Each structure stands twice: as C-alpha cells, then as structure tokens.
Amino acid sequence: MPMRSALRLTLIALGACAYAGLAILGWGGFRPFFSHPALIALGMVLFALTLWIVADRHRHPRRLWVIPVFMIIGLLNAYLPAYTDRKEVWTIDGEGIRWIGVALFAAGGALRIWPVFVLGQRFSGLVAIQPGHTLVTNGVYGVIRHPSYLGLLINSLGWSLAFRSGVGLVLTALLIPPLLARINTEENLLGAQFGHEYSAYCSWTWRLIPGIY
Fold first, then answer.
1. Which residues are CB-contacts of 131 (< 8 A; sequence separation ≥ 6)?
2. What is the Cα–Cα distance from 147 to 150, expressed in whole angstroms?
C-alpha cells in the first residue's frame, strides 16, 4: 500500500509538472512565462492546488482522480491557450481578463477539491458506492449535487481566460458532454442505491449551476 500510494503521488506530481510545462512551452519558455505577473500568479495557484491534492491523496490512497477523457482535453488546454496567446491567435482583448482568469482558476480549483474533503472516504474518482456510503445533503451539497464538476468547469474557464484564449473556451465547452454523461451515470447509481431519499433530494437541489441547471 505505501508503494502504491507513493506511485500515485508521483504520478500526480508528474502530471502537474507536465501541465505547467506544456503551458510554459506554449508561451515560449520559462523566461517569457515568468516575466508576466498574472502568469506567475497562475503558476502559484496551480502549485498550491497540487500540494492540496497530494496531501489529501496521502490520507486517502484509494482514490483515482483523473479520468482519461478529461486528461486529454486538459493536456490540450494546458498547451493551446498559452500558444495562441503568444501568437495572438483568437485572443480576448484586455490584460484585466488575465487576472479574472487567475481568480476563477483558484476558485474553481478550490470548489473542485472541496467535496473530496467533505465526503472523505465516500469520495471516489470512479462512479461507485463506497462501503458505509451515506447521502450528504448539507453544506454546498444542499444547493448543488455536483460541486466538484462545477469547480472543474470554472477552473478550466479561469485557465483559458488567464491566457485570453478563445480556443481554451472551446476546450472548456468540450468538457460539458462527458461531464453530463458522468453526472447521469452517477445519479442513476445514487437513485438506485438511495431510492426515494435521493429523489426527494433532487427535487430541491440543482444539478450543476444554481438557478440554471
């Protein structure tokens, strides 16, 4: 178990380095990337979120967080927004948009990880019912049923805006279909497990975006 946990932590760290490395490569190298205050802040947020994930993985080594389809889109989103920003291809005007992106990236990352701590051992990267699984309906779950997925979308949107990237916005939109498919699978499983209790919970909460969906 310690070896498996260490391997997973290593993979998380390598994945974060690869993600940052692709962005740096797309921007044109370390010196250009880290000469921009907003991108320095973006890198610091990415580093902080990675430490947060690693710390939690150490306590819950059975989790699998990264899904292959999200990884593919994520890797494209790591490189292409930075590249198109540097080349001034399909970019959004205004430097202020970068700082809005950094703020959204941080907020989305926190929302993405928060449910991991709230659910504890009940959290899984796979669609599964954990031993002793109970339905959580308080806190953020009292408003939306899938806060981690909303965090993922906000996180991706923030990353794209930090590079003023229209391409990044398209990649963020491409996350929606697999997310909705996964949400449907999860809700069918929870409905089968908890029956009327889950149906009642769904009747007074939103799936993903409060007031919209």
1. 121
2. 5
Cα–Cα distance for residue pair 211/213, rounded to 1 Å: 6
Q: Comparing 8 with 107, which gets the higher pLDDT? A: 107
| Burial environment of residue 74 by CB neighbours within 10 A (0 to 12, 13 to 18, 19 or more) | buried
Please write the tens of the pLDDT for every residue from 69-125: 777 888 899 999 999 999 999 999 888 999 999 999 999 999 988 877 666 555 554
Distance of CA 77 to CAs 5, 169, 192, Å? Answer: 27, 9, 35
Collapsing DSSP to helix, strand or coil, 91 comes out as strand
Alpha-carbon span 105 to 110, nearest angstrom: 9
CA 136, CA 157: separation in Å to the nearest integer? 27
Which residues, in sequence order, are bridge partners of residue 165?
A: 91
In this predicted structure, what is the pLDDT of residue 75? 87
The whole-model pTM stands at 0.83
d(CA 118, CA 196): 23
Alpha-carbon distance 4 to 178, whole Å? 28
